[in-house]
């Protein structure tokens, strides 16, 4: 293997013998690793951003310099502390809140359009809005199922479509992250459709999925309270033997919203403590 690597390197360099110092200096200047994660002045919306996973991602991105708009159906975010502390970050970022129900496509379009118009750009979306039902499958009523599908699937599509319209309008090659395993195929289809760059400069929109496994959220906490032993079962189902904290997904959001993931689309990022790796 090592011999083959050396042979390939020799063929690449041909007869040129570049000094090692020159090669190292060139690579270092070209990579600029920290700049790849630069999200300063990017405009990003996050659905389900009133609390937990969505709010943690929003906090990270705003602290890193992005203008972040949290969208949720709650009257106010819970807790409100991050909004008062990070109204304007030291890197120029800001954190805002807009009340909207992702199931209402018209309202979602209106809110996201107003944000894009204000900044004359839209760079990213994290679709983290989602709900679940703790009841057994056979106890789900048709109304319960419809509600879950409307929020988790239709809501994600409404948000992604509204975002893509503005990205195409302002010709910003942005990034969309869908947080839910149920919409993996949707993410792949949207990545294929919105990825190519068109002659007018629009397009180049990346769409990826995030599967977070079990995370401490109000919905998860209610399930653990209603079903004794659920916490222990969830902890035993992954390799790390614990449930994730919302703040552990900050780095993933920063990576996927920045240029560090510029060649990544149609992919699924699994951050589940090894739950699906058994």
Automatic annotation (TrEMBL):
Known InterPro entries for this protein?
NAD(P)-bd_dom_sf (IPR036291), SDR_fam (IPR002347)
Give the family, as the similarity comment puts it: Belongs to the short-chain dehydrogenases/reductases (SDR) family.
Sequence intervals crossing the membrane: none
- Species of provenance: Penicillium chrysogenum
Signal sequence bounds: none
The record ties this protein, via Gene3D superfamilies, to: NAD(P)-binding Rossmann-like Domain (3.40.50.720)
- Lineage of the species this protein comes from: Eukaryota, Fungi, Dikarya, Ascomycota, Pezizomycotina
Answer yes or no on keyword Nucleus.
no
Which protein, by its recorded name, is this? Answer: D-arabinitol 2-dehydrogenase
Keywords, A to Z, come to: Oxidoreductase
The record's Pfam families line, in alphabetical order, gives: adh_short_C2 (PF13561)
């Amino acid at each position: 293997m090592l011999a083959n690597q050396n042979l390939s390197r020799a063929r690449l360099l041909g007869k040129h013998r570049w000094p090692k110092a020159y090669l190292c200096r060139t690579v270092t200047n070209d990579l600029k690793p920290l700049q790849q994660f630069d999200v300063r002045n990017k405009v990003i919306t996050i659905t389900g951003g009133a609390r937990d996973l969505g709010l943690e991602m929003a906090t990270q991105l705003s602290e890193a310099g992005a203008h972040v708009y949290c969208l949720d159906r709650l009257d106010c975010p819970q807790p409100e502390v991050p909004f008062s502390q990070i109204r304007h970050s030291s890197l120029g970022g800001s954190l805002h809140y807009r009340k909207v129900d992702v199931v209402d496509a018209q309202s979602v379009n209106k809110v996201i359009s107003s944000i894009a118009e204000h900044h004359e750009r839209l760079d990213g979306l994290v679709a983290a809005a989602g709900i679940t039902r703790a009841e057994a499958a056979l106890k789900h009523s048709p109304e319960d199922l419809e509600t879950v599908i409307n929020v988790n699937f239709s809501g994600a599509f409404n948000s992604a479509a509204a975002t893509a319209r503005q990205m195409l309008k302002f010709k910003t090659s942005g990034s969309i992250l869908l947080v839910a395993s149920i919409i993996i195929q949707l993410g792949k289809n949207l990545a294929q459709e919105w990825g190519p760059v068109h002659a007018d400069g629009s397009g180049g929109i990346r769409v990826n999925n995030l599967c977070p496994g079990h995370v401490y959220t109000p919905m998860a906490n209610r399930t653990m309270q209603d079903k004794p032993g659920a916490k222990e079962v969830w902890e035993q189902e992954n390799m790390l033997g614990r449930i994730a904290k919302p703040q552990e997904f900050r780095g993933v959001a920063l990576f996927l919203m920045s240029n560090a993931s510029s060649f990544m689309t149609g992919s699924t990022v699994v951050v589940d403590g090894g739950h699906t790796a058994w």
